[in-house]
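Sat 14:20. Reprocessing the chain from the morning session after the first attempt stalled halfway. Input below, unchanged.
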Amino acid sequence: MSDNKNLKLKVCGMRESENILALAKLLPDYMGFIFYGPSKRYAGDLLNKDTLKTLPESIVKTGVFVNEGVEGIEKICLTYGLKAVQLHGNETPEECAILQASGLQVIKVLHVDKAMQIDEMLKRTTLDRYEKVCDYFLFDTADMAWGGTGRTFDWNILKDYSSQKPFFLSGGIGLEQLPIPGFVLEKPIWGIDINSRFEISPGLKDIERIKLFKEKLNAVVS
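Finished this time. C-alpha coordinates:
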Protein backbone atom coordinates (compact mmCIF):
# COMPACT_ATOMS: atom_id res chain seq x y z
CA MET A 1 0.00 0.00 0.00
CA SER A 2 1.18 3.51 -0.79
CA ASP A 3 2.00 5.88 2.05
CA ASN A 4 -0.41 8.80 1.87
CA LYS A 5 2.27 11.13 3.27
CA ASN A 6 3.57 11.14 -0.30
CA LEU A 7 0.30 12.32 -1.79
CA LYS A 8 0.44 15.72 -3.46
CA LEU A 9 -2.15 18.36 -2.65
CA LYS A 10 -3.59 20.46 -5.46
CA VAL A 11 -5.87 23.39 -4.65
CA CYS A 12 -7.80 24.62 -7.67
CA GLY A 13 -9.93 27.65 -8.49
CA MET A 14 -7.70 30.36 -7.03
CA ARG A 15 -7.76 33.94 -8.32
CA GLU A 16 -7.61 36.62 -5.58
CA SER A 17 -4.13 37.79 -4.60
CA GLU A 18 -4.61 37.93 -0.84
CA ASN A 19 -6.19 34.47 -0.83
CA ILE A 20 -3.44 33.09 -3.07
CA LEU A 21 -0.70 34.39 -0.79
CA ALA A 22 -2.44 33.00 2.30
CA LEU A 23 -2.72 29.59 0.67
CA ALA A 24 0.92 29.71 -0.45
CA LYS A 25 1.98 29.73 3.20
CA LEU A 26 0.58 26.19 3.48
CA LEU A 27 2.83 25.11 0.59
CA PRO A 28 0.37 23.06 -1.44
CA ASP A 29 2.15 21.11 -4.17
CA TYR A 30 -0.05 22.49 -6.96
CA MET A 31 -2.16 25.64 -7.23
CA GLY A 32 -4.73 25.82 -10.01
CA PHE A 33 -6.09 28.83 -11.91
CA ILE A 34 -9.10 28.41 -14.19
CA PHE A 35 -8.96 29.97 -17.66
CA TYR A 36 -12.39 28.88 -18.86
CA GLY A 37 -14.76 31.80 -19.28
CA PRO A 38 -18.06 30.16 -18.24
CA SER A 39 -16.58 28.93 -14.93
CA LYS A 40 -17.70 30.65 -11.72
CA ARG A 41 -14.02 30.55 -10.76
CA TYR A 42 -12.67 32.05 -13.98
CA ALA A 43 -9.43 33.80 -13.11
CA GLY A 44 -9.78 36.46 -15.80
CA ASP A 45 -8.55 39.93 -14.92
CA LEU A 46 -8.60 39.18 -11.18
CA LEU A 47 -5.44 37.11 -11.42
CA ASN A 48 -2.32 39.20 -10.82
CA LYS A 49 0.74 37.85 -12.61
CA ASP A 50 3.05 39.71 -10.21
CA THR A 51 1.47 37.87 -7.27
CA LEU A 52 2.12 34.55 -8.99
CA LYS A 53 5.78 35.47 -9.45
CA THR A 54 6.20 35.61 -5.67
CA LEU A 55 5.00 32.05 -5.05
CA PRO A 56 7.53 29.49 -3.80
CA GLU A 57 9.16 27.46 -6.57
CA SER A 58 7.89 24.26 -4.98
CA ILE A 59 4.29 25.17 -5.88
CA VAL A 60 3.45 24.03 -9.40
CA LYS A 61 1.33 26.81 -10.89
CA THR A 62 -1.31 25.10 -13.02
CA GLY A 63 -3.62 26.51 -15.67
CA VAL A 64 -6.99 24.83 -16.16
CA PHE A 65 -8.27 24.90 -19.74
CA VAL A 66 -11.19 23.64 -21.83
CA ASN A 67 -10.58 23.37 -25.59
CA GLU A 68 -8.42 26.51 -25.55
CA GLY A 69 -6.04 25.40 -28.30
CA VAL A 70 -2.28 25.01 -28.04
CA GLU A 71 -1.43 28.59 -29.04
CA GLY A 72 -3.84 30.10 -26.53
CA ILE A 73 -2.65 27.82 -23.74
CA GLU A 74 1.01 28.57 -24.38
CA LYS A 75 0.35 32.33 -24.41
CA ILE A 76 -1.44 32.22 -21.05
CA CYS A 77 1.23 29.96 -19.53
CA LEU A 78 3.92 32.41 -20.60
CA THR A 79 1.99 35.42 -19.25
CA TYR A 80 1.47 33.90 -15.80
CA GLY A 81 4.56 31.71 -15.50
CA LEU A 82 2.55 28.49 -15.37
CA LYS A 83 4.38 25.16 -15.19
CA ALA A 84 1.49 22.75 -15.72
CA VAL A 85 -1.76 22.54 -17.66
CA GLN A 86 -4.94 20.69 -16.70
CA LEU A 87 -6.99 19.87 -19.78
CA HIS A 88 -10.73 19.33 -19.24
CA GLY A 89 -12.00 19.32 -22.82
CA ASN A 90 -11.62 17.36 -26.05
CA GLU A 91 -7.92 18.08 -26.39
CA THR A 92 -6.31 15.56 -28.72
CA PRO A 93 -3.29 13.39 -27.90
CA GLU A 94 -1.40 15.42 -30.49
CA GLU A 95 -2.14 18.67 -28.65
CA CYS A 96 -1.09 17.09 -25.36
CA ALA A 97 2.18 15.95 -26.94
CA ILE A 98 2.97 19.47 -28.18
CA LEU A 99 2.34 20.99 -24.76
CA GLN A 100 4.38 18.31 -23.02
CA ALA A 101 7.25 18.81 -25.46
CA SER A 102 7.25 22.53 -24.60
CA GLY A 103 8.21 21.64 -21.03
CA LEU A 104 4.80 21.86 -19.39
CA GLN A 105 3.44 19.17 -17.12
CA VAL A 106 0.27 17.86 -18.76
CA ILE A 107 -2.65 16.70 -16.61
CA LYS A 108 -5.40 15.15 -18.76
CA VAL A 109 -8.82 15.06 -17.16
CA LEU A 110 -11.00 11.98 -17.62
CA HIS A 111 -14.63 12.29 -16.59
CA VAL A 112 -15.80 9.24 -14.71
CA ASP A 113 -19.18 7.52 -14.80
CA LYS A 114 -20.42 3.95 -15.22
CA ALA A 115 -19.94 4.10 -18.97
CA MET A 116 -16.31 4.98 -18.43
CA GLN A 117 -15.89 2.02 -16.10
CA ILE A 118 -16.92 -0.35 -18.88
CA ASP A 119 -15.52 1.34 -21.96
CA GLU A 120 -12.45 3.23 -20.87
CA MET A 121 -11.05 1.59 -17.76
CA LEU A 122 -11.56 -2.05 -18.63
CA LYS A 123 -10.95 -1.72 -22.37
CA ARG A 124 -8.53 1.18 -21.81
CA THR A 125 -9.47 2.90 -25.08
CA THR A 126 -8.95 6.45 -23.81
CA LEU A 127 -6.15 5.56 -21.40
CA ASP A 128 -4.09 4.06 -24.21
CA ARG A 129 -4.52 7.17 -26.37
CA TYR A 130 -3.24 9.57 -23.72
CA GLU A 131 -0.81 7.58 -21.57
CA LYS A 132 2.31 8.56 -23.49
CA VAL A 133 1.42 12.23 -23.99
CA CYS A 134 0.47 13.32 -20.48
CA ASP A 135 2.26 13.28 -17.14
CA TYR A 136 -0.83 12.55 -15.08
CA PHE A 137 -4.48 11.70 -15.44
CA LEU A 138 -7.06 13.45 -13.28
CA PHE A 139 -10.31 11.62 -12.58
CA ASP A 140 -13.32 13.88 -12.06
CA THR A 141 -17.07 13.28 -11.93
CA ALA A 142 -18.78 13.26 -15.32
CA ASP A 143 -21.24 16.05 -16.05
CA MET A 144 -23.05 17.54 -19.05
CA ALA A 145 -21.13 20.79 -18.60
CA TRP A 146 -17.37 21.28 -18.72
CA GLY A 147 -15.38 21.70 -15.56
CA GLY A 148 -15.82 20.45 -12.01
CA THR A 149 -19.14 19.31 -10.57
CA GLY A 150 -18.45 19.41 -6.83
CA ARG A 151 -19.71 15.81 -6.67
CA THR A 152 -17.78 12.69 -5.73
CA PHE A 153 -17.88 9.69 -8.08
CA ASP A 154 -17.86 6.06 -6.96
CA TRP A 155 -14.21 5.43 -6.17
CA ASN A 156 -14.77 1.68 -6.48
CA ILE A 157 -14.43 2.23 -10.23
CA LEU A 158 -10.70 2.74 -9.63
CA LYS A 159 -10.37 -0.94 -8.74
CA ASP A 160 -10.42 -1.55 -12.51
CA TYR A 161 -7.61 0.95 -13.20
CA SER A 162 -4.84 -1.03 -14.88
CA SER A 163 -2.51 1.74 -16.06
CA GLN A 164 0.74 2.67 -14.33
CA LYS A 165 0.20 6.34 -15.19
CA PRO A 166 -0.03 8.37 -11.94
CA PHE A 167 -3.31 10.18 -11.37
CA PHE A 168 -4.99 12.90 -9.34
CA LEU A 169 -8.27 12.16 -7.61
CA SER A 170 -10.85 14.95 -7.89
CA GLY A 171 -14.57 15.59 -7.68
CA GLY A 172 -16.19 17.06 -4.57
CA ILE A 173 -13.46 15.92 -2.19
CA GLY A 174 -13.70 17.27 1.35
CA LEU A 175 -12.70 16.34 4.86
CA GLU A 176 -15.37 13.62 4.84
CA GLN A 177 -13.42 11.63 2.23
CA LEU A 178 -10.40 11.18 4.51
CA PRO A 179 -8.63 8.92 5.06
CA ILE A 180 -8.27 7.79 1.44
CA PRO A 181 -9.34 4.13 1.15
CA GLY A 182 -6.62 1.52 0.97
CA PHE A 183 -7.73 0.15 -2.42
CA VAL A 184 -7.20 3.63 -3.92
CA LEU A 185 -3.76 3.98 -2.31
CA GLU A 186 -2.75 0.67 -3.88
CA LYS A 187 -3.09 2.32 -7.29
CA PRO A 188 -0.49 4.82 -8.65
CA ILE A 189 -2.30 7.81 -7.15
CA TRP A 190 -0.22 10.99 -7.32
CA GLY A 191 -2.34 13.56 -5.58
CA ILE A 192 -5.67 14.92 -4.38
CA ASP A 193 -7.37 17.86 -6.06
CA ILE A 194 -9.67 20.03 -3.93
CA ASN A 195 -11.80 23.04 -4.77
CA SER A 196 -15.47 23.76 -4.10
CA ARG A 197 -15.79 21.99 -0.74
CA PHE A 198 -13.32 24.51 0.74
CA GLU A 199 -14.86 27.73 -0.54
CA ILE A 200 -16.31 30.73 1.22
CA SER A 201 -17.57 31.84 -2.20
CA PRO A 202 -16.56 30.83 -5.75
CA GLY A 203 -12.83 31.45 -6.12
CA LEU A 204 -12.31 32.34 -2.45
CA LYS A 205 -10.93 29.55 -0.25
CA ASP A 206 -11.23 28.87 3.47
CA ILE A 207 -7.54 28.61 4.33
CA GLU A 208 -8.07 27.12 7.78
CA ARG A 209 -10.17 24.26 6.39
CA ILE A 210 -7.50 23.57 3.77
CA LYS A 211 -4.87 23.56 6.49
CA LEU A 212 -6.87 20.96 8.41
CA PHE A 213 -7.33 18.87 5.27
CA LYS A 214 -3.61 18.99 4.53
CA GLU A 215 -2.78 17.89 8.07
CA LYS A 216 -5.21 14.97 7.85
CA LEU A 217 -3.98 13.99 4.40
CA ASN A 218 -0.45 13.80 5.76
CA ALA A 219 -1.49 11.61 8.67
CA VAL A 220 -0.68 7.90 8.78
CA VAL A 221 -3.11 5.71 6.86
CA SER A 222 -5.66 4.28 9.25
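Strands lie at 8-11, 30-34, 60-65, 84-87, 105-112, 136-141, 167-169, 189-194, 199-201, 204-205.
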